[in-house]
Amino acid sequence: MDANRTLLASLLTHQLSTIATLDAADRRAIETLPVRFRTIPERRDIFREGDKAVEACVVLSGWVCRYKIISGGRRQILSLHLPGDIPDLQGLTLEVMDHSLLALEETRCAFIPHEAMRGAADLSTGLGRALARRALIDASLFREWIVNVGRRPAYERTAHLFCEIYTRLRALGLTNGPSFPTPLTQIDVADATGLSPVHVNRILQQLRRGRLLSIKAKTAVIGDWEELQRVADFNPLYLHHLASDLAPAHGAA
Amino acid sequence: MDANRTLLASLLTHQLSTIATLDAADRRAIETLPVRFRTIPERRDIFREGDKAVEACVVLSGWVCRYKIISGGRRQILSLHLPGDIPDLQGLTLEVMDHSLLALEETRCAFIPHEAMRGAADLSTGLGRALARRALIDASLFREWIVNVGRRPAYERTAHLFCEIYTRLRALGLTNGPSFPTPLTQIDVADATGLSPVHVNRILQQLRRGRLLSIKAKTAVIGDWEELQRVADFNPLYLHHLASDLAPAHGAA
DNA sequence: CGACACATTGACCAGACTCAAAGCTAGTGG
DNA sequence: CCACTAGCTTTGAGTCTGGTCAATGTGTCG
């Protein structure tokens, strides 16, 4: 299965080099990481709150989310992770997981022992820096999510979520012009925005009627990108260089 | 002003050693950091969204918060920072600030050039690890805030905020038994919880009537710590070792 | 053809917001 | 020492965004 290794190296290198400079040694360090591949079926937890993680997980394909459940059983999604992401980077340093990780659809993942990851990061300055930087960008997204959930009304809030998703996907070349595939159900959107599923349904209808965004059959289509950003008060600064600003908006994957 | 240096070293060492192991060299690295001290007056911004930071700021005394303002002018507080904290750790790696930093009261800060900080972190593994870990703990607090703001009703949400504050202050020895000083206005609490000030006022009255928590003249008193945690669904796991679990609940500062 | 999960609708409810007016309190200047 | 101010807290009234409950569509998969 050398295809897996190649994919892993290419995704990691691509993702990390948009946020830090990697030299040949760094790239080699990435390519020689010991790794185990696994396919996680749709809607299966990858790890749970309280688990002790010993491996880091790199998403190769599919969407993944972090979430927490509070006492009443309500779920809050904390972040979405797309191919190339390392959703449990923090697990490298913080032994016990304070949240769970879920595959939103069938997902291909690479698992790298923490020991090896830490070793590689210590040896290869570029890799270490890139990982640290990536972790800090994650934190920046969390901050924006706090603002989104704390201060934006439902319509704006939902629009903002999709602005982020579209921008990140586009940077990864996973969009088809204005449209992209998404495994999110309205329930997922509700849990990511802190709204109720019923209300999300109504907000999505509003966005559709306004021709800003429409989702059907697991495919989202941005109807008016400018207006969607305006409504959402979307400022991609918080993505730092996650979204290479200059990525072309078009061009099939 | 050697007292400043001593305070800085002691706060930093204390804070970082609760979350990572520091050897003599690490401590020396901390003690020899080049540093500039400054007093920030009450309600003054320390830096603003969009600024390029070249120094890291360590809080010596006073409370500080990070916040963002959205287009309508609404403010969301993202985190609170207490003595010993480095509220802009992320600035070390992410050049442009995606949020602002405000002194909630008169605050004494130490400023350390990023260059020096990075150098020290590179040389002293312990320090580097501790800083990275601290940054990841910050991210963990952000995640919990997303949950708080996204999924908890106002009463529980407000209770949770104060559970976090009390736990962190206690770990720093800044509580007097069940009570502690706080510079937070009800407006600040509103902006930290995503509520309106009027509603916060009513919730605080409820907490007071229930004898869980009462705030008067910038002093908060926990009336029933067990119950407050229960109501808030507070699980200090997410603070990782920020709150040395075994810190005594009592003993004057 | 069910079964199941998700999307949609309608009716109703409530938690939280807005607006507006008073109280407080601490600091300021006369 | 006291009015005056500014900022914060408190209260009341009315509204509305978003939640709940429950039923009905719709689509996919075995």
Structure write-up:
The structure is a homodimer of 253-residue chains. Chain A has 253 residues and is of the alpha+beta class. Helices cover 43% and strands 20% of the residues of chain A. In chain A, strands 2-6-4-5 form a 4-stranded antiparallel sheet. In chain A, strands 1-7-3 form a 3-stranded antiparallel sheet. Chain A has a 3-stranded antiparallel sheet with strand order 8-10-9. In chain A, a hairpin with a 5-residue loop joins strand 4 (64-69) and strand 5 (75-81). In chain A, helix 3 (114-123) packs across helix 4 (125-151), helix 5 packs across helix 7 and helix 6 (186-193) packs across helix 7. Residues 246-253 of chain A have low confidence and may be disordered. Chain A binds a DNA duplex (30 and 30 nucleotides) through helix 7.
Q: How much helix, percentage-wise, in residues of chain A?
A: 40-55%
SSE order of chain A in H/E notation?
Answer: HHEEEEEEEHHHEHHEEH
N-to-C CA distance of chain A: 23 Å
Q: Structural class from helices and strands of chain A?
A: alpha+beta
| Count, helices of chain A | 8
The most extensive contact between chains is: A-B, 41 and 42 residues
Biggest β-sheet: strands ordered side by side in the sheet of chain A: 2-6-4-5
Q: Approximately what portion of the residues of chain A adopt beta-strand conformation?
A: 15-25%
Oligomeric category: homodimer
Shape by Cα distribution of chain A: globular
Radius of gyration of chain A: 18 Å
Q: What value does the average pLDDT of chain A take?
A: 93
Find the count of extended strands of chain A (DSSP E, 2+ residues).
10
Low-confidence stretches of chain A are 246-253
Main sheet of chain A, how many strands, which sense, barrel? Answer: 4 strands, antiparallel
